[in-house]
Each structure stands twice: as structure tokens, then as C-alpha cells.
């Protein structure tokens, strides 16, 4: 009852399975136009989805904070092998549930409770910039958190269906 499909024609990965008489589906794609990862969880029975969505990283120099009201997890940091004035990274993840609720579970985890379906939208970026000159100016002053927040909230405004259609057209 478990099936994974890589649909190259539609640029999407799908997992389907049945558990206790309920059909579950997960769909994954990475949208180049929107610069986000999109994951959709759905079930054949209303209220059947209760999951935890978390962010983890082996990087020790990071801040992770979860906002239960906004249903977001935000990460900012510097790679362990870079100084504080070098490479910076940021990530933002947002959960949008249909039915049920999304609450803060802990500092790096959201809890989705009794949802009919839910979508996870995530963006990751850095302040790295290509520098073909000899000045070796590889890190911009731009905050990568601004980029990921812009990408995530623009994707949320589009919604899953529009993101998916845009992704297929781009592919």
C-alpha cells in the first residue's frame, strides 16, 4: 500500500499509502520561479492529519525561532567554518493548514493537529554573490532573511495550485 512516484513530465514527487483505511498523499516539488520548496500533505478523511514539522541543522552557529501565531519557523546563522563577517544563511518555513490547527510545539517545531490537508512552503538563501573581479567580494550586505521572507510570503499569496502550475510551465 506504499507507492513513490517521480513524475518527470509534471516535475513532482508523490508518495501515497493507506493506513487504517485512510489514503494519505504527499506531493513535493521545488519551484524555480518562486524559489521555494513546496510539500502538500492530504488525506481521504477530514481531520486525519496530525504531524510535527521541524527544522534541524548540524550547524552550531544558528538561531531558530518558531512563531505559532504565524505558523512559521525561521533560521538564521553563519556556517561553522566561516567568520561572522562572511557567509550568512537564512531559511523560513510556513505551514498552511486546511481544517485543524497549527501550533508551536517547541523552538524548532510546529504541530499540525487534525487537519484535512496542509502545505509547507520553505525558502533558503545566503548572502553569497558571484564576483568575477579580483576584489574577492563574495558576500553582500543584503540580509538573506529578507530574500526568504519575500519568497515565502509571495508563494503563500499564490497558493498551492498556482505554484504547481507555474512550476510545471517553467519545467
Quaternary status of these chains? single chain
Our Rg estimate from Cα atoms comes to 18 Å
Estimate the global geometry from the Cα principal axes: globular
Distance between the termini: 30 Å
Q: Give the uncertain stretches in residue-range form.
A: none
Strand order of the largest sheet: 1-2-3-4-11-8-7-6
**Helix share bin:** 10-25%
Largest sheet: 8 strands, antiparallel
Describe this structure in words.
With 171 residues, this protein is an alpha+beta fold. It is 16% helix and 49% strand. It is globular and about 60 Å long. The model has no long low-confidence stretch (mean pLDDT 92).
Give me the secondary-structure topology:
Blueprint (H helix, E strand, L loop, with lengths): L1 E6 L4 E8 L2 E10 L4 E8 L5 E6 L7 E6 L4 E6 L11 E10 L2 E6 L2 E7 L1 E10 L17 H27 L1
Antiparallel strand pairs: 1-2, 2-3, 3-4, 4-11, 5-10, 6-7, 7-8, 8-11, 9-10
Features:
171 residues, alpha+beta, 8-stranded antiparallel beta sheet, 3-stranded antiparallel beta sheet
